[in-house]
Amino acid sequence: MIFVLFIASRFYRMAIQFRIWLYDKRVVRNRAIGCLVVSIGNLSCGGTGKTPVVEVFAKSLCQHGRKVAVLSRGYRSKERSFMTKLIQKFSSKKMEVPPKIVSDGTNLLMNSEYAGDEPYMLASNLKDVAVVVDKDRVKSGLYAIDEFGTDTLILDDGFQYLSLKPHINIVLVDSTDPFGNHHVLPRGILREPIKNVRRADYIFLTKSNGGSHLKHLKNFLRRHNRRAEIIECCHKPLYLEKVYQRGDRKPLDYLKGKRVATISAIARPESFESFLEELGAILVHKVHYADHHRFTQQEIIDFINGAKHGDAEIIVTTEKDAVRMPRLDRRDIPMHFLRIEIDILSGQESFDQCISRICFL
Hints:
Layout: H1 2-24, E1 36-42, H2 50-63, E2 68-72, H3 82-90, E3 100-104, H4 112-115, H5 117-125, E4 130-133, H6 137-148, E5 152-156, E6 168-174, E7 202-206, H7 213-224, E8 229-242, E9 249-250, E10 259-264, H8 269-278, E11 282-288, H9 297-309, E12 314-318, H10 319-322, E13 335-346, H11 348-360
Parallel strand pairs: 1-5, 1-6, 2-4, 2-5, 6-7, 7-8, 10-11, 10-12, 12-13
Antiparallel strand pairs: 3-4, 8-9, 8-13
Helix pairs in contact: 2-5
């Protein structure tokens, strides 16, 4: 089995490098669409804390007077119906299907099922920022420029999207588990080889705790990219908010000494659970699902029953999971999500310079 994964990984690596070579040599050309493009992505599969970083960039750029739109592919968002696709395919008039508009910068226009959980979460938290979903981000970018007067596009999860030419490439690296076993898929967790971090203009070390291992990680990254600024940041819990009663918030010290049940469907739930324990919560019941899992009513009912069996006083989930929670009439145990933001630990000056650089490009 290991040999099969090794061979598959080698072929995947060659395919990725060949694709990048085609763009580098201009055999396949990427598009510049007359608008500033900031790409935010990573080398590994999930779990780097990308969405809060996209959020802080969008807010900072808006505060500096930019008209911002976030472009997402809408991973696991609901597709158009099979019949609609069939009609479009065989129609005598080829219709250009517009991208999904999750937010026009003023109104939230879609639910999480159709938008995808991360675009919906961004649209809920970002005022004055349009959020547009389409696999073809050249198309969605042009749409944002034409319809919303956008002058700055943020590509959410854009490091591997080579069709649209970025002005600035930002790569996120999880400092707790940077590259797994250093192999690409399917043998490892990497989408492309580590050496490709050389394309980055800025490297964000997320989930940083200031440990001594960061010096070795920075030196390792410097061997592959000497020009990129490296910025350390962590995910900072802000407050608890009720899942079914938005705006109803509680301070973090509410968790101290509480018996807590957790449910999550994220790539790395351990960091979320460690946050709760650091805040004084006693975790009595934990349930994990695969990343981006969409919960059913029965799953939530079963979880609540398990939480009650463990004498839990409160249920806590992540903000990303909260947008996928089905509506329930049961209120046996209060259900909250943990609101988190990015906190710059070191490299604040580099971050400010990055924002200024974007604004004056």
